[in-house]
Design goal:
16% strand, alpha/beta, 7 helices, single chain, 204 residues, Carbamate kinase
Amino acid sequence: MTERLVIKIGGATLFQPNGFETGLRNLMSLNQNAQIWLMAGGGDLVETMRKAHQIYPKLDDEEMHWRCVELLDHTWSIAKEVFHSVDVVASRDDLVRLSNQSRAPGMCWVRVQSFYSRDNCGLIPDSWLPNSDWSTTSDVLAWLLGMMIDADRVILMKQCECDPAWTMVEAAQRGVIDAELARLLDANPGFGPILELAKIDMAR
């Protein structure tokens, strides 16, 4: 059976010369026979919101969280325009349709709000549901996507130093992944996709 793979690329990489397309092409060439679901993070757009919250701490945590989820629409839109795919997952209907189809090799860009939004949290099992605050990052959402589409693997592309041999607990201890992701993995032991790290070579 064709492997189903989620690849999450950090939003900051979209704005780095030779980072996004080169890193993604290299990783995809190693997985060319897989069905690949691509997801973009928020990068500097989300970091700007984090800084705004630090300046105005009375802003509601949960409301800031959903603002950031909505901002991911913009990096998704840019990413799918720069790096074209045959399929685009823009809605929950798209997600259900494509995830239920046969696992033929191919590639699609996934909009986060097709599987995680203010309106569809009630459809997510409690043990999979992340906190609606700053502890939930796009790494967490990539894992959640993998759970929802029954992916075999989730690859988190990183600009920082990382070792694919690290366990996710070690990666969390080193600050490479967030504690919320480690918590969700602990809450779902032995279940779900294999989670991997991949270092992006940002050299020109």
